[in-house]
Transketolase
Amino acid sequence: MTDRPTAPETGKRARGRNVSHDYLADRARFVRKETVRLSRIAGAGHYSSTFSAAELFAALYYAHMRINPAEPKWPDRDRFVLSKGHAAIGLYPVLADLGYFDSALLDNYTRLGSPFGDHPDMKKVPGIDFSSGSLGHGLSVGVGMALAGRVQGRGYRVHVMLGDGELAEGQIWEAAMSAAHFRLGALVAIVDRNGLCIDGHTEEVMSVEPLEDRFAGFGWEVHRIDGHDFGQILSVLDGLPEAGEGRPQAIVADTVKGRGVAMMEGALNWHVGNLSDEDYDAVMAELDAGLKPARWEHSR
């Protein structure tokens, strides 16, 4: 498939939309390349945290969520909360590609007067549903959005992408308990389980496993998948029950931090960094060549 898919028809979720895995892989590569380009403009960037989420971004926005870029505040749109707000550098290009704003605006990423900062601002960037960045808040916001949708009688779904490092925040688990108590079936938590945070390996900094048991213990329905495999990602997304009263859904997506660039995969020093001119050219060429088998895999 070569043509860019249009936004889902108003009133319908993108479930079953005819978007090939090859196209989604191309969009994930686009996310990674734009992350590298924008990081060069800024002088530094969160490469590896964004690379681990690239396939998830592509699947959600191009093949699943009910959105309308021509009307960013459409009341019945699905919501997306990027709780790991430092990965916004990979989300902005997706929003531009879908038509939320002119992609040329990204050429001034993080520059004085630009609406695009390291973390997303819902008051400045069309398509951003929550200003995130302070870790641990996103799931609570998602709970509030899902409750609001119920009160207003709307059928939208709320997707919250969490970093595994922020699961050490107690507020996450307060929100998990609340979501199950209020039977927020419209709420979907997606954990980018790349096994690393800025301080080191998550299981050494603050163990979060067994994640399935922890979410299930709060009353969530839990799915564990390979977060780089579009077959698995779309299977679980398309299989979610319609938004309504019921058990909230947790998707634990096992990923590789820095996926797509060999020298960044599983490397702590690329949580934030800046590429030399030589490395920039090499990384872009590597991304153009497509994904190769991951060189690193975290242990649960």
Q: What stands out?
A: The chain has one domain: 21-289. Residues 124 and 280 are 29 Å apart (CA to CA).
